[in-house]
Specification:
The chain is an alpha/beta fold and about 250 residues long. It is about 35% helix and about 20% strand. It is globular, with a radius of gyration of 19 Å.
Length: about 250
């Protein structure tokens, strides 16, 4: 059985996952499809808006982080500007990796069973009347509006603290397809719809028929037919054990 998998998370975001998979005798090929570019003072208004949200953290009732990258950047800024943590805030993270960066600050994030926006919205603290509640969402620039829209429908006032840009990694024509062919890769982990589109644009028609693509949500999986991706699998928990369990099911059923 071929046990080669393409890991597409940005640089520095996949080390723990790769270690666990390697120990389980998987051959991991790490090729990021996106770069994370944090906002700094050179970004002018965007940087100062981000900084102001951090300085005003104590005016929010609920703070939510929807990515590990946002969490790492936000935690560093909070540590810098808040020598004593603000109190009275309910903290949420979309998944364990998004919660991890806040632990050194003594912040215990609530995490949903299913690691996506829909999972967050099912948590008791968010699945209720949120009238008069002020919510801050840590994220990258752009992205889905579903979480914010749903919270507004429940009465909340919602603002974004955008901490970085996602920049696509550019490949020469056929470069990514050649990488999969060379390493005999039959599995690929993608964590966003943007990544799925990027991979599909690079694969040969034959690869689209044979590669098993693993994604964290049904929403992303539903994009696959239009991109001619034949084998798509939902793994709600993109951590080491969750991914190993998902890969075990795929390999035993295929």
């Amino acid at each position: 059985m071929n046990k080669s998998i393409l890991i597409t998370r940005p640089q520095g975001q996949a080390d723990e996952l790769i270690r666990a998979l390697t120990q389980a005798n998987w051959h991991c090929v790490h090729q990021p499809l996106l770069r994370i570019a944090p906002f700094d003072e050179q970004h002018g208004v965007r940087f100062h808006t981000m900084k102001q949200h951090i300085l005003n953290l104590d005016i929010y009732d609920i703070v939510i982080s929807v990515s590990g990258n946002a969490s790492s950047l936000a935690a560093d800024l909070i540590d810098q500007y808040w020598p004593q943590m603000p109190v009275g805030i309910d903290w949420y993270a979309v998944g364990p990796s998004s919660a991890h960066a806040f632990k050194p600050l003594g912040i215990d994030m609530q995490v949903p069973k299913h690691n996506h926006s829909e999972g967050l919205l099912e948590l008791a603290g968010l699945n209720q009347d949120l009238s008069h509640k002020k919510v801050l969402i840590f994220r990258g620039e752009g992205g889905r509006e579903h979480l914010a829209q749903s919270l507004k429908q429940r009465g909340a006032s919602v603002e974004y603290c955008e901490l970085y840009q996602r920049q696509p990694v550019h490949f020469a024509e056929g470069e990514l397809a050649a990488l999969l062919h060379t390493h005999k890769i039959h599995y690929a982990l993608l964590t966003s719809g943007e990544m799925l589109h990027q991979l599909a644009a690079q694969l040969t028609e034959r690869q689209k028929q044979t590669v098993h693509v693993i994604v964290p949500s049904e929403r992303i999986a539903n994009m696959a037919p239009a991109l001619h991706i034949q084998h798509i699998h939902v793994c709600p928990k993109i951590n080491a054990q969750g991914l190993l369990d998902c890969l075990s099911k795929i390999t035993h059923s295929s």
